[in-house]
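I wish you would study the pair of lines that follows with an eye to the fold:

===
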Amino acid sequence: MSSEEFDLVIIGAGPGGYTGAIRAAQLGLKTAVIEKETTLGGTCLNVGCIPSKALLQSSEHYHAAKAEFSEHGIDLGEVKLNLDKMMDRKSKIVSELTGGIKYLFEKNKITRIKGYGSLKSAHEVEVKKSDESTEMVKAKYIMLATGSVPNELPFLKFDGKTIVSSTEALSLPKVPKTMIVVGGGVIGLELGSVWSRLGAEVTVIEYTDMICGGMDKGTSKRMLQILKKQGLKFEMSAKVTGADLNSKGATVHFESLKDGSKNSLDAEVVLVSTGRRPFADALGLENAGIEQDDRGCVIVNDSFQTTVSNIYAIGDLIRGPMLAHKAEEEGVAVAELLSGHPAHVNYLTVPSIIYTWPEVASVGYTEEQLKEKGIAYNTGSFPFSANGRAKALGHTEGMVKILADKNSDKVLGVHIVGPSAGDLIAECTMAMEFGGSSEDIARSFHAHPTLSEIVREAALAVDKRARQM
């Protein structure tokens, strides 16, 4: 048994865990974090958000050098890909950021315990070390922040070489000639875009009739058109039934959900990106009497308490969008609640971003959700093609759409397809957080020439006052 007892022990050092730990330490709680991996940062920092964005950026530069620079009067001659150097850059970024979290732990006097943590009781966590030894850690409060792992399909088992998850797809040793992406969600579209730009022929097989199922339908349709124009191929409303491995890769079998026809495609690499599931494996929930729902999510109340009052759960382990910034806010909220401060997470204003090119960003309700709820609304949209800054950048694909309450004009949702959409959505998130109206956005200064003017014009268009069309 460890001689130390902590105010708060967190299992998992991903975005929710490490951010919550830092806030707890700032508020005076004696805090420890248990993490099984060598580095801190969880999936997001090590094999998720950050490395994928590094590769997306590098692949965009490569594509621009090959296909776009000449339009700017820049002649480069033959452009060659150095995949090893691209991967090294990605790894360096990850290393610098994980090192940064280590520094923050030391600065805030957070105890880092390396090993696999599992609950033994409501106040005890057993830590299994790499040498098979164990340590028992006691805490007044415990926060579960173990995140999620990729879904593995029973008929498409990961082998790490031909049938891969997002983890392996971030470190392929060479550009495959052909790639099949099973699942047209965020991860599949982002990584499919990376390898397509680097030279792979990519086909996405999607079970439903639209990419990114939770997306606004109009936005989804527009994005599908753009990605097809970029060279990605799509098999929509198609169910994958299995795959046969061979010396050249795999033959993936699928059938149409429209007419039942059976088809197959060959590929060197098959990326299975059919979502993620909460990672509660061997977490010992049953030892503490913690309940899960039918999807494996830990059940919590509005204060993130599990069915055991001193144990909390956050992030991908509970219901809601599996997003790093959502987990961060929940981790901070728990730390503040335990310290006697008010805390609240507004799930309507959790922005969602897809880092394809162009980017896709959204916050709030979709049109489909508003119709389902019977909420009357007005809509205003404006294209990037009419914006001076977008034309100067040479990237005019996309649009901004704002949904506002028909009676109060309160902003209910915003959907953006276009360059820097992930940054532009922040203004809209802020407006919604403060209960702002489309007129509030429309009457606020937006510097010229900037992409943010498109947001303003879309807000003006809600009241049919757009000035640049």
Q: What stands out?
A: The radius of gyration is 24 Å. The chain has three domains: 5-150+277-345, 163-274, 349-462.
